[in-house]
Amino acid sequence: MNSPNNPDAQPTTPNPVTADAVSPDEVELPLYVAHQTIYPRSVSGLFSKWRWGVVFLTQLVFYGLPWLQWGQRQAVLFDVNARRFYIFGLVLYPQDFIYLTGLLVISALSLFLFTAVAGRLWCGYACPQTVYTEIFMWVERRLEGDRSARMRRDGQPWSMEKAARKTAKQVLWVAIAFWTGFSFVGYFTPIRELGGQILLWQISAWEIFWVFFYSFATYGNAGFMREQVCKYMCPYARFQSAMFDKDTLIVTYDTARGEPRGSRSRKADPAQLGLGACVDCDLCVQVCPTGIDIRKGLQYECIGCGACADVCDTVMDKMGYARGLVKYSTQNAVKLGWTQKQILRHILRPRVLIYTGILAAVTLAMFVSMGTRIPFRVDVVRDRAIMSRLADDGRVENLFRLQIMNATESAQPFRISVTGRPGIALASKATVSVDSAQSRWVVLSVLAPSDAEHAGSQPIEFEIESLNGLGKIREKSVFLMPR
Fold first, then answer.
1. 178, 183, 326, 445: which is deepest, by most CB within 10 A?
2. What CATH number was assigned to the domain covering residues 376-481?
3. Is residue 109 a contact partner of residue 355, using CB atoms and an 8 Å limit?
4. Based on C-alpha coordinates, what's the Rg of the chain?
5. For residues 29 and 175, what is the distance between their CA atoms, to the nearest angstrom?
6. 275-323: per-residue pLDDT in tens?
7. Burial category of 308 from C-beta neighbours within 10 Å (exposed 0-12, middle 13-18, buried 19 and up)
8. Which residues make up the CATH 2.60.40.10 domain(s) of the chain?
9. Three-state DSSP class for residue 99
10. Confidence band, pLDDT 50/70/90 cuts, at residue 151
């Protein structure tokens, strides 16, 4: 039929299959929205400086830490093959898994606390996806120009200049991604050895796999997927609202001040034109790494980076208006017109205090535990091959195997004793030495007078004492007395 708004439109033939099934008032929507490339515009300002400061700090630590030496070894090394975790002067064994659990609990509570106070600070400033996307986009801007230049070049046919710029960008992206994967694997394989193995091509298959896996992940996530990771793959974007409330600091647009929006000259009086402070320049959309319009309110795609606040303040300065049309604020503050002091007073609310109290308690407990930790461990295992037997002197003999793990950087001597029954004693050597950061199995022969009256399983206790004053550990076991 002809369109009522366009009488010259060509008549269309209705689909015989769906003409009767679809109501004229119904609208068909595609199941998937076609992806549109986002060209973020560069921006400078307070939050941009903070973001780049975090980028420099995190990458200085990440890339530099594997190269630090601590004595004769790498300062931070997670040696999975030897089952030793070295963190500066601390040596951890798989039995110290509780500290990893504590670290994960502290990280989770910190995330809850920061989110409750100031929204997605992690996403906007320290998340690896944000950090490496910023690095990759910086390379892109250096080689292809800012937003308008990149859009114009992508719309042009291929030329030598375009191919050269695109190729140089890809080469630098691959180099950064490879160095990132290499540095990551360097935390698990000594990085100096790993570098030599790569140069001589003597690297193992697993190390090759993990270097290229993390290189590919960095290259794909930061170079191509970018905002799609934050919008569709990151679970944090989906449940962040459970940690938000109306007193959480988020990037907000002051609707009462900004609307109705509209363009105008710098000399024009917005009050006479009946306009708000927003000049509808759309720069806040152009600088957004996820391509959203902050003027539509809080959206799960917003990562809280503050780029829109930086560019809006720049526009307000040019127009001679007060800053803060887009800013970090709370929903209650924008609605009720609170001052900065009022906002800060509402930060210390019950949710924040509970998170802070639990986080402080867990952190303190973990540090106290690590500070009072005895730097060696002992496991006692009965020798199952020989449960018990009579010795030549008539006493009963039980065999035990003790694993002593030395978590220090020097060899340590230990003295072993046993108690729990009258006359019980060690027939084996009572002192042993364990090399630095090593474990040693010790076979112990324990003798006790025969006692048919108390036959069966009798509790005993081994005491392993460091002769260098590191402490002592007591481990319980049982002595089998035959009937």
1. 326
2. 2.60.40.10
3. yes
4. 34
5. 42
6. 999 999 999 999 999 999 999 988 888 999 999 999 999 999 999 999 9
7. buried
8. 376-481
9. helix
10. very high
pLDDT of amino acid 191: 94
In angstroms, the CA 280 to CA 260 distance is 9
Is the pTM higher than 0.85? The answer reads no
Pair 464, 475: CB distance under 8 Å: yes
Each residue's pLDDT tens digit, 375-400: 888 999 887 777 788 888 888 999 99
- Say how far apart CA 350 and CA 332 lie, in whole Å: 16
- Helix ranges (DSSP H) in 201-243: 205-220, 227-228, 236-239
Amino acid at residue number 301: E
Q: Find out whether 288 and 308 touch, Cβ atoms under 8 Å.
A: yes
The size of the chain, in residues, is: 483
What would the 3-class secondary structure string for 247-294 be? CCCEEEECHHHHCCCCCCCCCCCHHHHCCCCCCCCCHHHHCCCCCCCH
Query: How far apart are the C-alpha atoms of 75 and 182, rounded to whole Å?
Result: 17
Instruction: Residue 303: name the closest of 118, 112, 45, 107 by CA.
Output: 118
